[in-house]
Amino acid sequence: MNLPRLAPGVRLSFDRQRDGWILQAPERIVKLDTIGASVIALVDGKTRTEAIVTALAAEYEAPEAEIAGDVADLIADLATRGLLVLR
Questions:
Q1: Is the pTM of this model over 0.85?
Q2: 3 state SS for the chain
């Protein structure tokens, strides 16, 4: 698959006002659900998507095949929005 990393100027942080995890980018904020935050917490520019899927499958005790599609969709969506960069 690929090697995702946060785009320049984007960071993951906890927003107390929204009581949840967000991706902060210049002039925009994207609120993440718990699973989305778990995925992005593993996005470090060094970990391949397959390893992220494996880690999440172990954490949530779910089949990798089921998680892989959701992770790929989230990463693709955030990359399209310019919040992630894929190598």
A1: yes
A2: CCCEEECCCCEEEEECCCCEEEEEECCEEEECCHHHHHHHHCCCCCCCHHHHHHHHHHHHCCCHHHHHHHHHHHHHHHHHCCCEEEC
